[in-house]
Design a protein that fits this description.
Elements lengths: L5 E2 L5 E2 L9 H29 L7 E9 L3 E8 L7 E8 L5 E9 L8 E8 L6 E8 L16
Antiparallel strand pairs: 1-2, 3-4, 4-7, 5-6, 5-8
């Protein structure tokens, strides 16, 4: 004998055995597993983006900038490279609209005493600059193909 068809709240009849109600435990287990996988994905993505951005920063202090002619900006800053490596500082210039019109990674070698190094870097730009800046210095080199200046020795 076949089991009786299951009726849903709407009064419709469904074939027996095919549309049985799921257990709440199975639904909860699925929700927990999907939540854990989603959190693991977010943590992995965050770690990847952190690594790609270069991770830690190197201490720096912008001293100022000077607009020299129509195509050169001189940026002066102090940076304390790691004792065992090089600080890679991004020096860039922007025009009045905020558009970047010149950028270069400047490698700064450490001093023997581990102190700060004063850097005065001339950056060639393509347009009329209104500012020069050093947004960051990092202990890792820039990606291949990025414009790079000659190393600065203390």
């Amino acid at each position: 004998m076949l089991p009786a068809p299951i009726e849903d709240p709407g009064g419709r009849r469904r074939p027996p055995g095919r549309y049985d109600q799921r257990s709440r435990a199975a639904s909860r287990s699925l929700a927990v597993v999907l939540s854990v996988l989603f959190v693991a994905f977010l943590v992995s993505l965050s770690w990847l983006l952190y690594q790609r951005s270069g991770g830690e920063q190197v201490p720096l202090q912008l001293r100022g900038y000077e607009l020299v002619g129509d195509d050169v900006v001189v940026v002066e800053f102090d940076v304390t490279p790691p004792a065992d490596g090089t600080a890679w500082c991004l020096v860039r210039a922007r025009q009045a609209s905020g558009e970047e019109i010149g950028a270069e990674h400047v490698p700064v070698l450490p001093r023997p005493d581990g102190g700060a190094v004063r850097v005065r870097h001339e950056l060639t730009v393509r347009g009329e600059a209104v500012t020069g800046e050093v947004p960051r210095c990092r202990p890792v080199p820039p990606p291949a193909g990025e414009p790079t200046a000659e190393p600065v020795s203390p």
